[in-house]
Amino acid sequence: MNETTSKFAPINTICLMILAASAFTWVLVYTKTVLMPFVIALFIFMLANSSANWFSRHWKIPYNLGIALNFLAFMTVIIASISFISNSIESFISGADIYADRLNDSLDWIVAKAAKHHIHINADFITDSFTKIPVFNMVKSVGSLIMSFFTNTLLITLFVIFIFMGKASAEKPSLVGRLQKQISFYLLVKIGVSILAAGCTWLVLTSVKTELAMMLAVLTFILNFIPNIGPFIATVAPLPVLFLQYGFDWQMLLVLVLLTAVHFVVGNILETRWLGKGMNLDPIVVVASLIFWALVWGVMGALLAVPLTAIIKMIMEQHEATQPLARFLGGGYSFR
Questions:
Q1: Can you give the pLDDT at residue 260?
Q2: Would you say residue 122 lies in a domain?
Q3: H/E/C letters for each residue in the chain?
């Protein structure tokens, strides 16, 4: 009986892990409305707590004052972002008719160019196809999504306040301390490189007088938190605006080249140098975690995919049964 039990022990363990993972995923989806703001609040707490401790050690600023300064900075950034985005969306929607005329002019230009090369294009078909695309409704939906994202700040703020109020004065366990240190460092570096990428994007777009430059810069800051895919989307996002504004002209090519260079330097050189090994996650695991968290929590899940997966990996490292999975997440696998 003991031999039979030991024989099927690995299978039982795998089945239990699959059931636990399924239950965990169901809980994440079912409690998304409350759990997601709570997780964001925890990350803010980690970052603010580490920052306040650093201020206390190096600048002799009282801990509570450091917390207050971090909270004030957080609220300032949120309010400024809401203001910039709402103004940009309002200006874009108010100029919808102008952009529609520019789109028609660009289509006429494309048809004329094709005719010179003896390529026949049905202009009416293209025009009808473009008019059926709910471009401006999509823009409004994106704007509503962004505004809804920022309105959740109230709930996140409440969670942050309760977390700080319930902060224990006792020494943190080693796992919690390591989690806070690693996640705080990752978030700090990520925020820094995202601000740098957004600032460079704003400078590039402003240099060619691109409309919606500020909104695109804020979008770049947000997208930079999404690994691999985010910087690519941020690079090509200004192109439709430039097309509507200038058509196929040198401005579009210049912006594409400069933004590609910006994201290459910031993402592949500076971020890699400052983060080092980062979260010790395999690149394939990062992409897989991005897909998983995006399916579970949408856009916010994609933004938080890396730190959430790193937390799961560090927790798995504490238990012998899940240590092989933790090594797998860190790239300790071979297909040979």
A1: 92
A2: yes
A3: CHHHHHHCHHHHHHHHHHHHHHHHHHHHHHCHHHHHHHHHHHHHHHHHHHHHHHHHHHCCCCHHHHHHHHHHHHHHHHHHHHHHHHHHHHHHHHCHHHHHHHHHHHHHHHHHHHHHCCCCCCHHHHHHHHHHCCHHHHHHHHHHHHHHHHHCHHHHHHHHHHHHHCCCCCCCCHHHHHHHHHHHHHHHHHHHHHHHHHHHHHHHHHHCCCCCHHHHHHHHHHHCCCCCHHHHHHHHCHHHHHHHHHCCCHHHHHHHHHHHHHHHHHHHHHHHHHHCCCCCCCHHHHHHHHHHHHHHHHHHHHHCHHHHHHHHHHHHCCCHHHHHHHHHHCCCCCCC
In a domain, 218, yes or no: no
Q: Which parts of the chain register pLDDT below 50?
A: 1, 168-171, 335-336
Asked if the structure places residue 141 within a domain, the reply is yes
pLDDT of residue 335: 47
Q: How many domains does the chain have?
A: 1
Residue 22 included in any domain = no
For residue 138, the enclosing domain spans 49-165
